[in-house]
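Notes, p. 3: input format for complexes.
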Amino acid sequence: MEPVNVAIVYYSATGTVHALAQAVAEGAEKAGAHVRLRKVAETAPPEVVGTRPEWVAHLQDTADVAEAALDDLVWADAVLFGAPTRFGNPAGQLRAFIDTTGPLWYQGKLADKVYSAFTASNTAHGGQESTLLALGNTFYHWGGIIVPPGYTDPVQFQSGNPYGASHVAGDGAPGEVSLQAARHQGRRVADTAALLKAGRAA
Ligand SMILES: Cc1cc2nc3c(=O)[nH]c(=O)nc-3n(C[C@H](O)[C@H](O)[C@H](O)COP(=O)(O)O)c2cc1C
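Output follows (202 residues plus flavin mononucleotide):
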């Protein structure tokens, strides 16, 4: 059986979600998946980005990360979306990419894939769950198979978010618990996609 294809499509302004995305990729690779790590395009104007040096620095630091294309979604057996919370919702940069998927959705090309999501916020109750659930609304429309982490690994009792890996950026950069939860999510999504692929082939 060929390995499953896992796309990780994320937006990050200051690096938190990017760090989680890399950990998700590690987990999926460890499960044997082919992985594409893709950022979405920055849509904020340079004068807004320029108000925060860490935003400018992160854009420069990730200049070599390939930008997500619709083909990445077609290619994938499973897709994990990552975005920081913005007033309790996914960042508009990720939504802008998702909003270009209408033709794929119409042709049924987004259905029957595995989907999952991860996020970051500045504060503990600042909207991580609402952000992840909002991304879930889209997965329902696509006819996706949503695979959350739940409490399927001991690290989930430390990270405390069954909806998806998440990190409180106000506490600093993601530490081992947040990164381990992200790795677990990537591994679980890849494992589930592999089981589905094997079942369909049988
Ligand atoms: C316009 C805007 C809205 C935000 N809204 C929230 C919010 O509702 N709750 C929260 O805890 N943090 C909020 N934040 C903070 C971001 O979620 C936080 O900086 C982000 O998760 C860091 O991720 P990144 O380093 O990947 O960009 C907001 C930030 C911006 C710029």
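Residues 12-18, 84-88, 120-123, 126-127, 169 surround flavin mononucleotide (CB under 6 Å).
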